Amino acid sequence: METQFKHLFTPIRIGNMVLKNRIVHEPTDVSSSHSTGEVSERDIHHHSEIAKGGVGMLIVGATAPDSKTGRPTVTGLVADGDNYIPGLARLAQSIQRYGAKAVCQLQHPGRQSAIPRHNYMSSTDRVIKLPWSAGHEIVYANAEETGKAVRAMTTEEVLEMIDIFAEAAWRVKQAGFDGVELHAAHGYLLSDFMSPYLNNRNDRFGGSFENRMRFLLAVVSQIKAKCGKDYPVLVRYSVDEWVEGGRDLAESIEVAKVLEEAGVDALDLSQCIQETPGSGFDPMQYPEGWTMYASEAIKKAVKIPVLNSHTLRNPEYCDQMIAEGKTDMIGLARQLLCDPYWPLKVQYGKVEDIRRCISCLEGCWQESMMAQKEITCAINPACGRAEYDALKKTENPQKIAVVGGGPAGMEAARRAALLGHKVTLFEKSGELGGAILGCCMAPGKEKMKWYADWIRTQIAKSNVEVKMNTAPTLKDHKKFDFVVNATGALSYVPEGVYGEVDRIKPFEKVIACPRVKCPYHPKDRKPEKVGETVVVWGDGYPAIDTATFLASIGKKVIIVTDQKEFGSATEVIHMYVTRKRFAQTDAEALDSKPYKYPVTVIENSRIREVRKGEIVVEDKAFNEQVIACDDIVTCYVRPNIAFYQEMVDAGLKVFNIGDSDRPGNLSHAVHAAGDFILNFDDKFILNANNCFIKDVPLEVQDILSK
Ligand SMILES: Cc1cc2nc3c(=O)[nH]c(=O)nc-3n(C[C@H](O)[C@H](O)[C@H](O)COP(=O)(O)O)c2cc1C
Ligand code: SF4
Q1: Catalytic residue among 84, 120, 188, 451
Q2: Which of 85, 226, 274, 419 could form a disulfide with 166 if both were Cys (CB 3.0 to 4.6 A apart)?
Q3: Is 333 in the pocket of ligand 1 (CB under 6 A)?
Q4: For 561-615, what is each residue's pLDDT tens digit?
């Protein structure tokens, strides 16, 4: 095969299976099975898309060996009965059909179970507070304050669980999977027992290194006994737990040696226990390759293949890591949710067309695992949705105007052009990007620029006609068959503030990027300067990013929010890192430059009055405090719909999407554009809610056409 990335596309052997290339889908719980745990059509579609993309091996995510005592998500896969075999067999075939080896990960979530919601099994009795864990405590009020009690398994239960794991592995083999992986990472049951930090037992399964390894080794040995010693068994474990008293690299090297000795066929290296979530589900702040130290060291201690992962996105880097012998295989989890065709694009050298995962965790972790919904991706609305495959080129191209070059407008324009419509995109400023452009200014959010670059490149390569610095008129729009309004949101000052209200600055102007050397910079944009002490008023990403930017340039920042908890509507692990930085520390494995001043957060409060050099803040109980400050920035936003209303009043066929419909995050904007495309019908049927409907019954079509 002719490819510039030859190391990625070199075969490798794991036990008795040969992978055709080194790109591996890391296990991801896509929460898409039936509520019983049986494989669904969505599971099949999702995994076969990834297999089609050309991975060498696909490890299906957390599959419960004993759903009665622990299931990581309410719609996670289950393998605790023979009735699951037919579905698992279809899943394995849907992967193998495209040349990938199919491996199934067995995971008992232990203390982090979503089901059942009581009697959580662990190595040790304790109360835990893990709002971001896959156990979804965040959806239960006050979980963080109260925590949840978990209990130590009895020795008999541990012995029984060894057989339960082996039986599940046997079913996986029976279903036709090429191998099985044990999930012994991230603080779940096997990992909990291995951890010197979590395991306080004093029986043969706790205490010394040998005792902590006993449960996992017994499971490996029992699987080999039941499935045959040639049946490939992989183990995923966390190299660093990033807590004092937790496992570190030195012990992990010993773990690797012991696992090799026990007949494990490959090591899949990960990071974290749920007490240290930043390193396990690395949000945007984590740089590419931060875990390479782990496989580099462990490879020196063992001969079996080693797989590394976490924030690997760029093929040049991945290829180089294999070439330098730092890892044998490249593991991708979120990247393949975001773009299942990563391997294919790499193979054919279409690198700039890869939609790189921006590690936002908004679609996959927050909106799926946390909210207990099926998997999605913030910037790939097609993730897990077969409806997108059914989209076909139109035979009746329409002239579509898209107003607004933010993420919603660009995604709608790009996809409409792909369908064959004639699209004109109007952007009133000199730069495409809209609300995501400010993110470049918040240290740790640089990956947002990956998305901005990708979508701007796709627009440039498409047939979309782009009219920059153009605010269209009603007359312009009358030339189109249809208008998509994506004019975004604008900041505003909430009512009920007295005094020098004009001094309150809009956040868009404060975090406007001043780097005129950037090829995209509109040149005429001038950011607003602020003084030494700045009050950031509001919540959500506008306030988080504004505060992060100002703190990073040495300002004293005070956030005022009317919410009970600042940032509670945003992604939890991102907030975990953000809060650490606000407190002048950092999350595990990171070493950003501490801010000059800690960021102060005043919750349950609002600004009442603006005076010269100070403001009056009032809390929910009407207590007032005066805060000295040089500037105030509002981060409240509302839809920018003046022109949309004009178009509606003029009787134009117009559809409103993204922030101009309802302010939200990037995921909301991109998915709104996707929904528009899925529903768009060239016969223009708009229902009473101004929504498209398509595929209406023939008799209704007939009635409407007369
Ligand atoms: C939504 C989601 C589900 C995950 N499910 C699993 C899982 O079932 N088993 C597992 O070992 N790791 C799981 N992980 C961790 C990933 O495999 C991976 O280690 C992590 O996302 C970092 O790597 P990445 O940057 O390639 O995504 C999950 C991560 C996410 C975001
Ligand atoms: S939602 Fe964000 S983190 Fe998750 S796969 Fe998509 S881009 Fe990556």
Answers
A1: 188
A2: 226
A3: yes
A4: 999 999 988 999 999 999 999 999 999 999 999 999 999 999 999 999 999 999 9
Q: Which of 49, 285, 288, 338 to mutate to test the pocket of ligand 2 (most atoms within 8 A of CB)?
A: 338
Query: Rounded to an integer, what distance in angstroms lies between the CA atom of residue 624 and that of residue 32?
Result: 49
The span from the CA of 24 to the CA of 60, in Å, is: 11
Helices (H) and strands (E) in the chain, counts: 20, 30
Ligand 1 pocket, residue 281 CB under 6 Å: yes
Q: What is the pLDDT of residues 678-696, one digit of tens each?
A: 988 777 788 888 788 888 8
CATH number of 396-488+640-705: 3.40.50.720
Place of tokens 């045959």: 228
Rounded to the nearest whole angstrom, what is the distance from the C-alpha of residue 382 to the centroid of ligand 1? Answer: 19
- Which CATH homologous superfamily contains domain 493-635? FAD/NAD(P)-binding domain (3.50.50.60)
Residue ranges matching CATH 3.50.50.60 in the chain? 493-635
Is 257's pLDDT higher than 90? yes
The CB of 377 under 6 Å from ligand 2? The reply is yes
pTM for the whole structure: 0.96
Q: Is the CB of 268 under 6 A from ligand 1?
A: no
| Ligand 2 near 337 CB (within 6 A) | yes
Active site residue 188: yes
**Residue ranges, CATH 3.40.50.720, the chain:** 396-488+640-705
Angstrom distance (rounded) from CA 466 to CA 106:
49
Q: Which residue has a Cα nearest atom 10 of ligand 1?
A: 27
Does the domain at residues 19-386 carry the CATH identifier 3.20.20.70? yes
Please give the full DSSP string across 456-524, using - where no structure is assigned: HHHHHHSS-EEETT----HHHHTTSSEEEE---EEE-PPSS-EE-GGGEEEHHHHT----TTSTT--SS
Residue with token string 């109260």: 146
Q: What is the pLDDT of residues 328-343, one digit of tens each?
A: 999 999 999 999 999 9
CA-closest residue to ligand 2 atom 5: 334
